[in-house]
Amino acid sequence: MDIKGELRVAKLADVPPGGLLSVDFGGVRVLLAHADGELHAVRDECSHEAAKLSDGELEGATVECPWHFSRFCLRTGTALDFPAMDPIDTYAVRVEGGDILLSRAAGGADR
Ligand code: FES
Predict the structure, then answer these.
(1) Most buried residue, 16, 30, 49, 71, by most Cβ within 10 Å?
(2) Any idea what the Cα angle at residue 42 is, between residues 57 and 63, rounded to 5°?
(3) 48 close to ligand 1 (CB < 6 Angstrom)
């Protein structure tokens, strides 16, 4: 991790439009999603019973959990359907030289 708290986690080419990729961010599994023309990064763990959201489905700027089908907003981490109620952490994403860098988002990953 560099001085800005950023970590290179993948190549941009690894997450094509419509793609999902699970990466390690300092010991935390984070889901990278290329949806609606943007890259998003959220905790790769459902807030209901900890399913891997990277095994789920993208629907616009949301990801649907593979176990009980709660959807989460990829921008805010908000749970949009029951049974999940709590949000998931979000991370700041930046692309530099074809690499994807992650850092903790203000008000996101430290909750
Ligand atoms: S584990 Fe995701 S909705 Fe139940």
Answers:
(1) 30
(2) 20
(3) yes
pTM of the shown model:
0.91
Q: What pLDDT, on a 0 to 100 scale, did the predictor assign at position 105?
A: 76
Per-residue pLDDT tens over the stretch 12-34: 999 999 999 999 999 999 999 99
Closest by Cα among 3, 8, 1 to 100: 8
Q: State the distance from the centre of ligand 1 to the C-alpha of 96, rounded, in angstroms.
A: 34
* Inter-residue contact 19 to 33 (CB < 8 Å): yes
Average pLDDT over all residues of the chain: 92
Is CATH 2.102.10.10 the right assignment for the domain spanning 7-104?
yes
Domain ranges of the chain: 7-104
